[in-house]
Design brief:
By secondary structure, this protein is an alpha+beta fold. It has one domain: Transcriptional Co-activator pc4, Chain A. It has three helices and eight strands. Strands 1, 2, 3, 4, 5, 6, 7 and 8 form an eight-stranded antiparallel beta sheet that branches. Strand 6 and strand 7 form a beta hairpin. It is globular, with a radius of gyration of 16 Å. The N terminus is likely disordered.
């Protein structure tokens, strides 16, 4: 992206949730080709099992994905996910990073993410809504009837 900016920045978000996390990441296009991408991670305590990630290429369209919060956390330390969303830690280079692969139909994209700011942000989401309590308070009867 343009200008000299930190690889991560937090912006003021809703009072009930953590600040969104904005990361400058890279899409891997080939062995020596990378494209800068800005990714904004948002967490809604009302829908705590997933994180919304919006990807923006400068001068290009935005793409949004809902990714399981547990998948992101596990992917920082080991292989996580199946099918269209997979994440795993990077074992190359000097900086702590993770790979995120997204696929849809016959298209796929591989991104390199800085792991420390993502890990710290995810920790804040788990302080707001602890693991295992994501569905506490859900009215399952209403959900089955289609009313909740």
């Amino acid at each position: 992206m343009s200008g000299k900016r930190s690889g991560a920045q937090a912006r003021r978000g809703a009072a009930h949730g953590p600040l969104p996390l904005t990361l400058d990441i890279e899409r891997v296009l080939g062995v020596a080709a990378r494209q800068p991408v800005r990714a904004e991670f948002r967490f809604d305590p009302e829908s705590p099992s997933a994180v919304c990630v919006e990807f923006l290429v400068e001068g290009g369209p935005r793409a949004s994905w809902r990714i399981g919060r547990d998948l992101l956390r596990q992917g920082l330390s080991s292989m996580s996910g199946l099918g269209s969303v997979r994440m795993w830690p990077s074992s190359a280079g000097e900086r702590a990073a993770a790979w995120l692969q997204l696929a849809s139909g016959d298209m796929a994209a591989l991104f390199e993410l800085p792991a420390p700011p993502l890990a710290a942000w995810l920790d804040r989401t788990y302080r707001l809504v602890p693991a295992g309590s994501e569905f506490t308070g859900v009215d399952w009867d209403a959900a089955v009837r289609g009313g909740g």
